[in-house]
Design brief:
- This protein is of the alpha/beta class.
- It has a single domain, classed as 3-Layer(aba) Sandwich (Rossmann fold), CATH 3.40.50.
- The chain is built from 11 helices and 11 strands.
- Helix 6 links the parallel strand 5 and strand 6.
- It is globular, with a radius of gyration of 20 Å.
- Bound molecules: zinc ion (ZN).
- Zinc ion binds next to loops.
- The site of zinc ion has 8 residues, from loops.
């Protein structure tokens, strides 16, 4: 069971997370110039997020090291994301995952013919793999979360790899690749997007989805989370794809940062979105702390979010 110190480190508002990290250059364009867009996360803990001044890609600063991220996923992620695993993924997770898998399989139906090779990068509990296998596709997943990968293998009988480096698949191998809410967790999302693009057949499609940091309807700080070390908006997601030789496929529905991309031979232009960083700094500007605290708007979201994590953390099963 996690210690009270663990609880303090991960849930106490207005304190930082237990990590040191290191500054990094932008993974998309390589620039080191940036604009601060947030100082707290959805738990009201101290967490700085910056937007690259050249291209607008948002990242955590300082960036957690690979070891710190691994440690976070090993100890804190489960309680943070309320996916406690005694006896398998919680029912509400499986329901949501099944709905999302059905939606994705429906969207990509024109490409999911019998015999098509499909990769789900970040395959979670395996619902999408099961859905496409039912259509006669050859499906394989990559999922570093051991518990989820084990669940997918056991309950859906699907093939899931723990990880996959560049050499794991030949270039031009897959008809369809999907990656659903994975890129925001990676230290090197632009490099991973390039790898996925390389594995894709010339006429293949890549479905990619991440949270939209420019979404309206909730307080800006609610969009920031320690596990999300990169933040995208429509422009930066498309630019990440563009760098990897991909453009939005004109025949498919898209919504902001949920997109189906196709390959292109057109040369990549300058990796820049002039003015985007400054715009994000304004759009994501938090309410003044005093006004926000006095409004009480933080109480219910925080209680709701933390109640289950507290229960999972402290109640014996
Ligand atoms: Zn950049």
């Amino acid at each position: 069971m996690p210690s009270p110190r663990y609880f303090f480190n991960h849930f106490m508002p207005f304190t930082g997370y237990p990590y040191t990290g290191a500054p990094t250059a932008c993974n998309l364009c390589g620039s080191t110039r940036s604009v601060t867009v947030a100082e707290t996360d959805r738990r009201l803990k101290t967490l700085r997020s910056i937007a690259c001044e050249q291209c607008g890609l948002i990242r955590t600063d300082p960036m957690p090291t690979p070891a710190e991220l691994a440690d976070y996923y090993a100890t804190a992620y489960r309680a943070d994301y309320q996916l406690a695993f005694a006896g398998g993924p919680p029912r509400n997770h499986l329901n949501r995952s099944a709905r999302e898998a059905a939606f994705r399989a429906d969207l990509l139906a024109p490409k999911l013919k019998a015999g098509a090779r499909v990769l789900d990068f970040g395959s979670g509990s395996g619902e999408f793999l099961a859905a496409v296998r039912a259509k006669g596709c050859e499906a394989i997943g990559v999922e570093p979360g051991r518990d989820y990968a084990a669940y997918a293998r056991t309950h859906h009988g699907v093939e899931v790899l723990d990880d996959a480096d560049d050499a794991r698949f030949p270039a031009g191998h897959f008809d369809v690749i999907t990656t659903h809410h994975v890129m925001e967790h990676l230290r090197d999302p632009a490099d991973v997007m390039a790898r996925l693009s390389r594995w894709l057949k010339p006429d293949g499609v890549l479905y990619a989805a991440v949270p939209n940091m420019a979404a309206t309807g909730k307080p800006p700080h609610e969009r920031f989370h320690f596990a999300h070390v990169h933040g995208f908006v429509r422009e930066t997601f498309d630019l990440t794809a563009r760098r990897a030789g991909l453009v939005p496929h004109p025949d498919y529905w898209r919504e902001d940062t949920t997109v189906v991309y196709a390959k292109t031979d057109a040369p990549v232009g300058r990796l820049a979105v002039p003015g985007l960083a400054e715009r994000l700094a304004v759009d994501l500007k938090p309410m003044p702390a005093g006004a926000y605290l006095a409004s009480g708007a933080w109480i219910w979201p925080m209680l709701r979010r933390n109640a289950k994590a507290v229960r999972d953390t402290f109640v014996a099963r």
